[in-house]
Specification:
By secondary structure, the chain is mostly helical. About 75% of the residues lie in helices and about 10% in strands. The protein starts with 12 loop residues before the first helix and ends with a helix.
């Protein structure tokens, strides 16, 4: 096993326990990131479908708005731009942003906010075209307002689309890193530590076996020497006839022993 495929650790029981804890954490993190990626992909596909539908609708609304503007110009009898610019002081429509949390990713949502008629000249705008073409101008204004709402929704969806795209790429990179780099390295480190610990246990068992065999040989050698000493002591110890139940047999044995001793001496 190459050293680059595992973490640099000293093989020990503590290191093995640490690697097991790291592997559990990496597995849990991988599972959570995988679920996050799946949730983001579900929302990503839903937004993609909604963007497609809103853009088609916005295209139809834009055509209707331009047609209504042409009709208003025809009914008004000239260009509306200067009249509108002179009448309107401030914007009648503003945006509000609200964040939506999807699996830890903040997605912005834009909403239209209309000002009160008395605040910003909205009441003055209602008088535009009062003399002629007022109905056509109001119809064009309503159509453009609806088109603007669609554009606001499309802007929010596209912003969420881009944010989700980056979040999914980042999450998938982390998932792939945990699955293909971190977890295999921790697993290889665990196997390396276990193999080294097994080797150390075999060496320790072999060493203890050698020590046990050596002690056994020394014990047998000591027992043999003790047996020799005991035999010598027994040979040198005077014979006691009282140990035998038959005194005559004991006397015969004494004679035999005495004869053996005489043979040894002479």
């Amino acid at each position: 096993m190459a050293s680059k495929d595992r973490l640099p650790v000293v093989p020990s029981r503590l290191s093995l326990q640490q690697m097991k804890t790291k592997y559990q954490g990496a597995s849990k993190g991988h599972s959570m990131l995988k679920k996050k990626s799946d949730a983001l992909m579900v929302r990503f596909r839903a937004i993609l479908k909604e963007v497609y539908e809103k853009k088609l609708e916005a295209g139809e609304e834009s055509r209707e708005a331009m047609m209504a503007l042409a009709q208003a110009k025809y009914a008004f009898g000239g260009e509306l731009k200067h009249t509108v610019m002179e009448t309107v002081k401030d914007a009648t429509l503003t945006l509000k942003t609200v964040s939506d949390n999807v699996a830890g990713v903040q997605l912005p949502s834009f909403f239209k906010s209309e000002a009160e008629p008395g605040e910003d000249g909205g009441g003055t705008m209602m008088l535009t075209g009062l003399g002629k073409g007022g109905e056509s101008i109001n119809d064009a204004r309503d159509v453009f307002t609806h088109t603007l709402e669609l554009l606001i929704q499309i802007a929010a969806l596209q912003t969420s689309f881009l944010i989700l795209d980056e979040a999914i790429k980042l999450t998938n990179r982390r998932v792939n890193a945990l699955e293909n780099v971190v977890k295999p390295r921790i697993e290889n480190t665990k196997k390396f530590i276990e193999s080294e610990l097994d080797e150390l246990e075999r060496e320790e068992f072999f060493r203890l076996k050698l020590i046990q065999n050596k002690k056994e040989r020394e014990r047998k050698k000591a027992e043999g020497e003790q047996a020799k000493v005991a035999n010598n002591v027994e040979l040198l110890t005077p014979f006691n006839p009282d140990k035998f139940a038959n005194p005559e047999k004991a006397t015969d044995l004494i004679g035999v022993a005495a004869g053996v001793d005489e043979d040894i001496l002479f």
